Amino acid sequence: MMTRIFQAGMLAAVMLLAGCVAPQQHVDYTAFRESKPASILVLPPLNSSVDVAATAAVLSQATLPLAESGYYVIPVGVMDETFKQNGLTTADDIHGLPATKLREIFGADAALYMTVKEYGSKYAVVASSITVSIDAELIDLRNGAKLWSGSKQVVQAGNNGGGLIGMLVQAMVDQVVNTLSDRSYGVAGMTNQMLLSAGQPGGILYGPRSPRYDTQ
Fold first, then answer.
1. Does residue 77 contact residue 44 with C-beta atoms inside 8 Å?
2. For residue 161, what is the domain's CATH number?
3. For the CA atoms of the chain, what is the radius of gyration?
4. Which domain range does residue 72 map to?
């Protein structure tokens, strides 16, 4: 019985880690290169996960990789306050606004729409892990055209050892620590960096503030 539990746990861990690797798809950058966006408005992400903290955690760490990639990014505080003053407080309502309206309000060339698919820790028999999965689309606010889309999942597995009993105990400890310390926030930052940093395979192009602009 214990052997079956061990095998099931190991299989679950392998399958979970395998989810980190996805086949690279061809990305058509024609519209992106023609648009030449210089400024980006990051919208509050939609949240399909069970953790209510996911939207804030992902949003707060999404602007840095875009700025480092050569874009002017509308400050999150300015974006949030502007929407509140106009009675828009949920990501669903904000995502439903016309692109031309967002352009009129913020003056940005493009907007980043994100959806958090997974966020948080999981306990699976002998392994506790943290998973963050994000989908993203960059939309031209001048004409509504899709410039780029991508997705990224990061799984951070616990470090278990000391035989089966040790693995079971460590997995439970990891789950408690993950929940209390919100390690998911750090993993969300890693996911944003991998998804939104220019120069990644299938990632966004460098912006006009980058010395590597027009090199891709």
1. no
2. 3.40.50.10610
3. 20
4. 25-196
How would residue 1 be classed by pLDDT, with cut points 50, 70 and 90?
very low
Cα 81 from Cα 92, distance rounded (Å): 16
Amino acid 215: pLDDT: 82
Q: Given this model, what pLDDT does residue 122 score?
A: 56
Looking at residue 5, what is its pLDDT?
Answer: 37
Type and span of the H or E element at 82: helix 76-85
Residue 202 domain flag:
no
pLDDT digits (tens, 9 = 90+) for 28-56: 999 999 999 999 999 999 999 989 999 99
Domain membership of residue 168 (yes or no) is yes
In the structure encoding, which two tokens stand for residue 160, read together?
A: 């278990």
Nearest to 122 by CA among 28, 32, 13: 13
Contact indicator for 45, 55 with CB cutoff of 8 Å: yes
Q: Is 9 inside any structural domain?
A: no
What are the CA-CA distances from residue 110 to residues 74, 100, 134, 146, 156 (Å)?
Answer: 10, 10, 19, 9, 32
